[in-house]
Amino acid sequence: MNATATFHLPDAVTLDFKAVLLALVILILSVVLGKLSKRMVLVKAKETELSWILNEDTAEIVFRMFLLGGIIGALYVLGVLKYEIWGTTVGNLAFSAGFFYLSYVFAKKSRDYLLSLGGSKAEVTVRAKLFYYSFLTIAFLLAINLAGISAKLSALLAAVGITGIVLGFAAQTVVSNFISGVFMYFDRPLQIGDAVKVGDVGGVVEDLRILSTRIRSWDGTLIRIPNEKLFNSNIVNLMRYPARRVEVSVGISYDSDVEKAIEIIKKTLDDIPFVLAEPEPTVYVDSLGDSAVILSVRAWAPSEKWFNVRTEVVKRIKEALEEEGIEIPFPQRVNWFAKELRVKLER
Amino acid sequence: MFGEHELRTQFIRVGEKKIHIIENPDGTFLYRRDDVRVIIAGGDGLKVLPAPAEGYGVRFLMIRLSTKVAVPPRESITGYLSAPIDVTVRSGNTEIDRFPLGREKYALYGDAAQGVIVRYHVSEFSTGEPDSVGVLKLVIKNPTNDWKLVERVVVPIKNSAMFYTPEKAYYPLVILTTREPYEVNNTGNPPDGTLRETHRAEPIPNFRMRWWP
Fold this sequence. Notes:
Chain A is built from ten helices and twelve strands. With 347 residues, chain A is α+β, with helices and mostly antiparallel strands. In chain A, the strands form four sheets. Chain A has a five-stranded antiparallel sheet with strand order 8-7-6-5-9. The relative contact order of chain B is 0.19. In chain B, strand 11 and strand 12 form a beta hairpin. With 213 residues, chain B is an all-beta fold. Chain B is elongated. The chains are: A alpha+beta (347), B mainly beta (213). Chains A and B meet through loops of A and strand 11 and strand 12 of B.
């Protein structure tokens, strides 16, 4: 049997048995070395405090790196890398793919590291995303350049210019949402975790994405708002400032002692821990209603406790007034009759 | 009150609160305080320790002086304030319960846009130790050439160490310097050398009271 039997690929690459054997050896070696390195990383991961960088993910990445190196090495030995395609070589394409993959891994790891840093969760999340996408965009452009197809790509883009214009019109909403997202990042009207009202939508901001913002509504449903719409809406941020005011109106009967009622309400507010002592709550006669004297109660609460404080204030004021015999009246009407009514009582 | 308690059926009184430990027939223990129930599966004892009055998670304690203090130029004055505290109950190194002792109240320190929610308390500034469970020793220093007025002190307390005797809890020594803006230094040092420490903690120095006096 002829040990130097040759294989022919059409028009381009010629393979001999030695080269195939060597390629196989390189592949097997890369797998073995990859597995060994993976195991070493796993062992180190258990000992180190830098678990954000040395962990199971990293071990898997190391293994893939060896595998990728092995594949490229094998292709080189086989001479496949010289094969021309789209005006460049397979080698260039493989190298640029490897470069982009490395950049992707680096960007992902860096993003995870940024996310693991302390500080404001919302701030860190947005910064990490911005870094991740910027890095990937630059890496992508460099990879295209390394692949040697940027000139071809430009020609292709020029060729599809008209199509581009058509697509541009179609994509204007996407672009608009993207640009609104960028403006929103700098304008910062809301952050992840904020309780907000946008138009008739209310809830907690779950995520700020490039094209849309996701809000978990009060009833637990997910609402996706395109950034363009959000940018043009009136946004009410319920948690931007540390304290929010609770406002409650209380009606007491005209027979009741107003001063006493005000004192009772003030005492009740003072007994509720989350009603802030400063700024001091105010209670005053707001108006003389049809059926009751209307007292206005204004108290401040930590923004994140606002709802609980409001419900507690209403409940405790009712209980306290009832306990002190101050009537909260039903609607009343005094009727006058032009002629005296004659009432006949039947027994 | 404060310190380590043996795990056996007993009442532990902490201020106006009462902790009840009940030994179960199966050898476990039931911890009860108001509505809080925890089964303790074992261990040597239970630690009842004072903790800074962080309440629901605030970083500062503001004590408003019921009587303002005027300090002459280049003088300093030392006194005591009553202070709210939290109580932490630990089994081993795990906190099984935490509750405020005394009146729990909060306030906004600063303006509506840039202020911060703080734990709030009103106290007399006295030269002798107050009767309250929680005590804060305060040194007011006036290094300036003008008279200075002190109406309140805002102390950074997040993760602050505390000091204690079986009956009382003490914040670390606090120094208020009346150079504007007033500067508050939680020294991390005990107000008195004989007190026990809850844990080793760093001082929390140089907090500037943007809104003074």
